[in-house]
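Q: Two folds, back to back.
A: First:
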Amino acid sequence: MVTTVYRATVMASLVLVAACAAKQPAVQTSSAPPPPSAGGPVSGDPSGSVDDALEQLAVGNSAAARQTLLSILKARPGDRKARSLLDQIETNPQVLLGAKSYAYKVQPGDTMSILAKRLLGDSEKFYALARYNGIDDPRRIAVGQVLRIPGAPKPVRAATPAPARMAPEPVANPQNPARARALRGTALAEMNKGNINRAVALLQQASRMDPGNGAIKADLDRALRVQGTVGR
C-alpha cells in the first residue's frame, strides 16, 4: 500500500516538471547584417555601388551610371560622392566647372582621369571634363588633340639658372725676371725724362714679373715718392 502511494507521488512530480518545461519560450538569436559602408553596395539595392557608377562613367555609359547613383541616393540621400557624380551627368559642365578655359594639347600618357587630377585637382571629375569638351566616352582622346581646360593655366615655374662658372682670371704678368730687368731700365729712362707716371707703371709691371727683385722694389718706392711730390 505504501509503495503504491510513493509511486503515484513520483509520477505526479514528473508530469508537473514536464508541463513547466513546455511553457518556456524558445530563445532566438539575431543575425541582422551590419549596415553598409559608405560607397559600398546599398543593402537591398541590386544596382551596385559608387565604384560601379565610376566604372560605368569611365566607359561612357552614363545612363547606367545615373540609375546606379539614383538608387544609392534613394537609400542614402546624404552620400556626397554619389551626388557629385550625378551632378557630372545632369549639370551643365560649364556651370559645374566654369566658363573660362584655356587650350591644352594631349600628351602621351594622358587620360581624362590624369588630366582631371593634375589640372582640376580631382581625378573623379574626369566625366565632367569629358562633357566639357563634348566627349561622351572619356576613353576617346588622342595624342595631339586640343582640349579646353576649365580655369586659368597654372604658371610654369621657371627653372633656376645654374650659377655661371667663373672663368679663371688670366695671369696678367707671369714671372719673367729678364723682362722685369728690361722694364726697369726703361722705367729709369722715363724717370730721367720727367715721365714719372710712366716710370711708376713700368716699375709696377716689372715688380710683378720679378717680385723678389730688391732693386726694382727700391726704384718703385722712390718713383712713388717722386710721384707723390709732383702730385702736390
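A: Second:
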Amino acid sequence: MKRNWQPEELIEHWTLLPRELELLNNKTSTNRLTIALLLKYFQYEGRFPISKSEIPQDAIIYVAQLLKVNQVRLEQSDWQSRTVRNHRAMIREFLGVTEATVEDGDALTQWLETQVLAYDLKFESLKDAATRRLRNLKIELPTPERLERIIRAAIRAFEQNFCQQIAEQLPTAVCQKLDQLLQTNSSELESESTENEEIKGNNNIYSPLAVLKRDPGRLGLDSLISEAEKLNQLRQHCEMRSLRLLMLL
C-alpha cells in the first residue's frame, strides 16, 4: 500500500459509512480505532495488514480524527493478540468473505493455468487477474509472498504442460535429433579449441545445444572456425526440418 495519501483519497477510501460505524458500538477507544483501520485496509487491499507498520500514517491520523480517538492508543495495542484475531473474524463475517485455504490456493493455481496463462504471461497481469478472481469469490487474499508462489506454480505447470503437448506431437526423428543436441558425450566436443577449454574448464563437458548457444568470444581464427561449425550444425537441423515438411506435403 502506498504511503502518501491526498485528502480526497483519504475521504474516499478511509471514511467509515454509517453501517460500518455500527461495528464499533460498545467498543473501547483502542479497539474502535483498530477495527476501523483493519476494515478499511481490508476493503482496499483485499487482505489484512501483517503489522501496524503496513498502515499509512496519513490514514491512521485521518481515521483517529474521525473517531475522536488518540492515535497513540494504536501503538499500545498488540496486533498478534487474540483480540485482534477476533476483530479480523468479525470483519470477515461483516464483509461476507472467507479466509483463504490451501484448497483455495490450489484452485487459483489451476484457474490461472487453464484460463489466463494461454493469453498473458506477464507476472503483473497474472497478479491482477488472481486478485480480481479472489475478490469476486469473496476470498481473503493471501500474503504477497504466498500469492507470488501460487502464480509461479501456475506458470511452471503451464510451461510443463505446454512443452509436454508439443513433445507428444513431434515425429520420432525430430525427438532423436533433439536428444542428440542434449547429449554431453559427443566426440566433436573433445576437439574444441584451447580457448573453449579455458571457458568450460577441465571437468565440464557442454552439450551441442550449449555449444550452439555459447558466446563466440574474442574475434580470431579459432572463434571463426567454431562459429562455422555451429552454422553447419544449424543447417543440418534446418535441412532435416525442410525434408520433414516436404514429406507432409
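Q: And?
A: Residues 172-248 form one domain.
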